[in-house]
Amino acid sequence: MKRIYLFAAVTAIVLAACTKTETTSISEGNLIKFDNAFVGNPTKAGLDQENQFGTGNLPDKFYVYGSFDNSSSLLFENVTVSQSNGSWVYSPVKQWEFNHAGNYKFVAYHSAEGNGSPAFDYDSKNITVSGYNSDNDHQSDFLLAVSDESLLKNIPISFSFKHALSMIKFTLTSTIGDIKITEFKVSVPASVGDVTMNDADAITWSGQKTGATYTAAEFNATTAGGASDEFVIIPQDDAELGITFKATIDGIEKNLKANITSQSFEPGLRYNYTTTITGADMDVIEFTEPTVEPWPDYGDNGNVDLVPAN
């Protein structure tokens, strides 16, 4: 097996989405409204493209915590804000109060329902999700946001979401034609952890635990390169990845594996591991690039005399 190389790329800068606010029978000027949900470009088997959120593909809902003081009774406590015909709506609506202007704080998250235990700290303006699970059976884009709005005046609250997970995939190139890749598995040391996003939008993971194995659907290693499914994993440091798969070409099967040590994964980054499968790996006869003797220079064969044809 050839050496596997790592490439990482930062996800693209967030872009705005055009939305509007729903009206109700209460004077709209006194309602707390949500608008402009932003998501950075990425972050089942693996995570399918349809559920990788970013520019042009927003989640249909997110969940909000918020208050104007540090009392135990929150104004917003895991309230669902849903997209409806271009509006971001929730129920029951909350009234904006002038005497609390400048004291409002809001955080939000998006994840599969029931995954992790969210909490909001008003004083530090942090959102924490404890016990988040990103194993093979829990592949979803996990987003966090802390709003800059304090509602000095009543304007729609916007969130700029960041991806809280890391994403990995594997690209296999073949030097001997198309090779069918089956039973592709990758193991990681941790799939569960606790995450906090602070007022500076910094995402920190802790308490990572519980190893997991991710299984990719069948794909082909080709001379141009073929990619596995994409998986979202818990950010972690000093991780060892274990990769195993079956490679098949023309009825010849080989079980191949690799171990990749000392890997660190950061929130919002994508990692593509690449390798090349050769004839030696598959124990098959292989042909390399041929060489061809060059044509010699033209010799000097003297002058040709021409005469009229008729």
Tell me what you see in this structure.
A seven-stranded mixed sheet has the order 2-10-9-6-3-4-5, with no helix packed on it. The protein has one domain. The N terminus is likely disordered. A hairpin with a 4-residue loop joins strand 7 and strand 8. It contains one helix and 21 strands. The protein is mostly beta strands. 1% of the residues lie in helices and 44% in strands.
Question: What's this, in brief?
Answer:
With 310 residues, the chain is mainly beta. The chain has one domain (5-282).
Topology of this structure?
Elements: E1 5-10, E2 34-39, E3 61-67, E4 76-84, E5 87-89, E6 105-110, E7 117-121, E8 126-133, E9 143-146, E10 157-163, E11 166-174, E12 179-188, E13 192-197, E14 203-209, E15 212-215, E16 219-221, E17 226-227, E18 231-233, E19 239-249, E20 252-263, E21 269-277, H1 279-282
Parallel strand pairs: 2-10, 11-21
Antiparallel strand pairs: 1-21, 3-4, 3-6, 4-5, 6-9, 7-8, 8-13, 9-10, 11-17, 11-18, 12-15, 12-16, 12-19, 13-14, 19-20
